[in-house]
């Protein structure tokens, strides 16, 4: 592919080596039988067996391996139905994004530079959708799940146990007003999509009325509107 004039000698083709990444053929000068994980095989078949690739493909894959450019839910959403580890990682990432607002408004967390625990995977504190090929390799090997669980535990400990400022930002379930202080990343909670109030999951789904916080905010807005209308009357 890259050097057609050199790929033949006297009209007789030299050894042709296929690159598993591009699907094209290369001469032995451009294809050294280097081995690399091919992204398409990983994403579509969860296959991480290294395959033979050309020199230019090897350099490109090495350059891109740690870059978060793979949006799995668009490329192959069914992968989450078959790979349990991916579901676990997605939940951990979602929890970390819910923890982030606590840290960026907490002086102690900023001084401890807690978010730098994920400095090698900065995209984990920006979104829960994008993955790098290295992320997938580490998930399949079991490394990422262990390290991310440890970081998740450290973050939750700061918010729920170590820091009084972060503890004060917790929620009490307004539907039952019982139990411990709740946080949006707790596994047994549900969060109102409109006002972000946190409730026990069972209370939230058993409740047939609207969110009490939303109802209270709506009444407050109506009251302010009525007051402003009264003041405007001559």
From TrEMBL:
It holds the Pfam family RH_dom. It comes from the Eukaryota. The keyword Zinc-finger applies. It comes from Chaetops frenatus. This is DEFI8 protein. Keywords: Metal-binding, Repeat, Zinc, Zinc-finger. Residues 17-221 form the Rubicon Homology domain. InterPro entries: DEF8, Multihaem_cyt_sf, RH_dom. The gene is Def8. GO terms for molecular function: zinc ion binding.
């Amino acid at each position: 592919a890259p050097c057609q004039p050199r790929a033949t000698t006297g009209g007789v083709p030299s050894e042709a080596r296929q690159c598993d990444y591009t699907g094209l053929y290369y001469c032995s000068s451009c294809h050294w039988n280097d081995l690399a994980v091919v992204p398409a095989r990983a994403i579509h078949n969860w296959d991480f067996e290294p395959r033979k690739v050309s020199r230019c493909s090897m350099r490109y894959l090495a350059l891109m391996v740690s870059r978060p450019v793979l949006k799995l839910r668009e490329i192959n959403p069914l992968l989450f139905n078959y790979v349990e580890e991916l579901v676990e990682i997605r939940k951990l990432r979602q929890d970390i994004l819910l923890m982030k607002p606590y840290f960026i408004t907490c002086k102690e967390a900023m001084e401890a530079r807690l978010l730098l625990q994920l400095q090698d995977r900065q995209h984990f504190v920006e979104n829960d959708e994008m993955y790098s090929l290295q992320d997938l390799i580490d998930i399949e090997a079991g490394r990422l799940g262990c390290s991310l669980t440890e970081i998740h535990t450290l973050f939750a400990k700061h918010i729920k146990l170590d820091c009084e400022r972060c503890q004060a930002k917790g929620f009490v379930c307004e539907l039952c007003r019982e139990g411990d202080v709740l946080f949006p990343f707790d596994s047994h909670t549900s969060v109102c999509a409109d006002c972000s109030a946190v409730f026990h999951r069972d209370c939230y789904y058993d409740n047939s009325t609207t969110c009490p916080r939303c109802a209270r905010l709506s009444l407050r807005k109506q009251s302010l509107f009525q007051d402003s209308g009264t003041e405007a009357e001559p």
